[in-house]
Amino acid sequence: MISKKSRRLLQLLGFVIGVSFGLWRPQQVQMMLPLLGITVGIGYFFLSRVSTENKTDLTEIKWFVPIQMIMYFVIGGAIGSSIHLYMAFF
């Protein structure tokens, strides 16, 4: 089981990489968002099923942290590309 502090730092890392990638390559991020969003959604669906069937905590499942990192990358990428789009309009 990974500690809460380490998990938060990995989430922050995913978010920062997403924001920077969204600012650097906004068009590529916009093309990647639907696929990554669907992947995260399916991942959370399977996480919830595995968690309820085995009656385990989500943090004990090995692929919980990578799914969260991808989710925070998607959020950061959407924010970064939106900032770039906002700066282009104004």
3D architecture notes:
- The chain is mostly helical and 90 residues long.
- It has 3 helices and no strands.
- The chain has helices at 4-24, 26-54, 64-89.
- It is elongated.
Task: List strands and helices in order, with pairings.
Elements: H1 4-24, H2 26-54, H3 64-89
Oligomer: single chain
DSSP, total strands: 0
Compute the gyration radius: what is it?
Answer: 15 Å
Q: What is the share of helical residues? A: over 70%
Span between termini: 46 Å
Regions with pLDDT < 50 over 5+ consecutive residues?
none
Summary, kept brief:
This protein is mainly alpha-helical and 90 residues long. The chain has 3 helices and no strands. It has helices at residues 4-24, 26-54, 64-89.
Which keywords apply here?
single chain; mainly alpha; 84% helix; 3 helices; 90 residues
